[in-house]
Amino acid sequence: AMEVIEIEYKGHDEFLDAIGHRESGNRYDIVNTYGYMGRYQFGVSTLKGLGFKVTQDEFLNSPYIQEKAMQKLLLHNRKKLRKFIEEYCGKELHGVYITESGVLAAAHLAGAGNVRKFFRKGYEFKDGFGTKMTSYMTQFSGYNLELNEY
What we know:
Distance between the termini: 48 Å
Order of helices and strands: HHHHEEHHH
Strand content: under 5%
């Protein structure tokens, strides 16, 4: 019998689910010890930078606002990191296989500036819990993202 090899293409919703799971166990109402909020663990300054003027309560109680914020952040980071994504996508750099979804996940954890430092000189960022930026690049690689303005 012939062996059937199925290639799984993971989509945008699976990406959000995976990141949400890693960040908060996919809970919209959670705040961590550092004050990061919701399903994707947003900081207040990031939300302000994206143009969201909401209280912590409003944010935690609105899955809609949280999903909108995540989409906006992904678009924002892709814009900032576009030239690196285009140059390195599908290649290995500093021992890490580069994909768009992995790069954007890393930017979610560490910020676009730290991702740039990784591309330029192999810099490794760790968050307050010791999570490495490159672990996000690897764990969240290979998703097909739908990043349309809306």
